[in-house]
Design brief:
Elements lengths: L4 E17 L2 E18 L2 E8 L3 E6 L10
Antiparallel strand pairs: 1-2, 2-3, 2-4
């Protein structure tokens, strides 16, 4: 098995990503913290770990404006 690739962002780190379930859009998540570690598998984001001063906002797909949708 190939080891996971990852990216570490330190300082005021913010990640905005779109949540999908079985290929269907489910919403948008904006997460911030002192440190974000983003893990990838097969060139796709698999998970995010947020550390220190964690904040996040999840917006369900039905509430996203047209300009927010991927």
């Amino acid at each position: 098995m190939r080891p996971r690739d990852e990216v570490l962002v330190e300082g005021t780190a913010i990640a905005t990503y779109y949540v999908r379930d079985k290929g269907q859009p489910r919403g948008m998540n904006v997460t911030s913290g002192d440190r974000l570690r983003v893990f990838f598998e097969n060139r796709r984001m698999s998970r995010i770990r947020v550390e220190g001063g964690t904040e996040g906002d999840y917006t369900p797909q039905r509430l996203l404006s047209r300009s927010d949708k991927p």
